[in-house]
# Entry
Amino acid sequence: MATTLRQLSVTAACCCALLLSACAEEKAEQAEQAPKVTIDKNPFPSKYQPLPGEPTVITGVTILDGIGNKIENGMVYFSEGKIAAIGETLDIPAGATVIDGTGKWVTPGIIDVHSHLGVYPNPSTHSHSDGNEAVKPVTANVWAEHSVWPQDPGFGRALAGGVTALQILPGSANLFGGRSVVLKNVPHRTMQEMKFPEAPYGLKMACGENPKRVYGKKGGPSTRMGNVAGYRQAWADAENYRRAWERYEAEYEAGKNPKPPKRDLNLDTLMGVLNDEIRVHMHCYRADEMAVMMDVMKEFGYQIYSFQHGVEAYKIGDLLAENNVCSAMWADWWGFKMEAYDGIRENIPMVHQAGACAIVHSDSDLGIQRLNQEAAKAWSDGRRAGLEISQQDAWTWLSANPAKSLGIFDKTGSLEVGKNADLVLWSANPFSTYARADKVYIDGGLAFDLAEPSTWPVADFELGQVGEGDIK
# Structure
């Protein structure tokens, strides 16, 4: 009897062991079959298609290549959307269109790093005001591209001013205003068809008076120290979020079946910044605040790619250079609020002279039409102050430096073999008040031709409301 009981016990133990083993195998099988949860980093991909172009050679033209070189009586050849050759003397390929550029100038297309076209379009009405999600200080979850109205007439006006690419930013009401998007300035039906392929996203941040003013009576922040506390808490939360995703991925790779973190769209964007996938562009006027923000940048290990407006950047040009931060500035806007009071006309050339990355920007649907003149004003103000900067170096403020800050310099921003054929043929020296963009090419396609009014872009919204003479 005792033997029988022992046998039964052994049998029962074996059955339990087999059941446990089967359960373990079933769980292991389930773990192997569980799909890995990932975050789609590009859920709204570009659908941009270049304009049709043809092999073209411009001869006898003065060339500013966008990286500090000037060629007198030069030639530029572009084909299949790319710069194919540039120099003083080139062989003209058979079948190429030849344009006589005698007396004219060629530059890379202008890139505006601070535009609100499409999110604050014309007509300027409350119903079109889509740039500020002013509901709480941290709105990194919103994306400017979802507010872009492609029918904004401003795109066509900017094109006539030689602008070939532009960054569309949210407004500056919030500490974190949301993601920016880079567009090719080819007016189209949808935002996706304008979206610059493979351009990194940006994150708009703002310091100083704007967040204080908007949230001072909404529970804060109401002070500059409150602003900084808000940035730091958001970055600390983003660090925790990143660690949670890293832990999930590590456990998954180890063969476990972990529960993924709960998605948070705010923290998705901030984590993208910490991983250097998204570039911070920060509205900041005062030198002391820019210095503080570079300290916060170091604390949390991310990079600020530009301070936008940078009215007092001239005071800290050495710090900007040391920390590899660009400053995007106006030529002469100042004094319209206290943090803009200490602006000087020599700001841009002084930042350049300090070895930092200087950029001319617009922040205006009117200024974007004349950015070449804004650069000319800054250049001439610097010359009067004894800063001997050449025009070919000053053009970097409009093309190469903006492209670098946006992460697209490998594709555009200079006239170099293999880069996109984004260029402007000017009627005269583009630093002249009288110069006009004769022809604007984007990826080698003729996007604007001053001599052919019938080809000028007209938004659907304008049809029947303006004539050819009204859109010059």
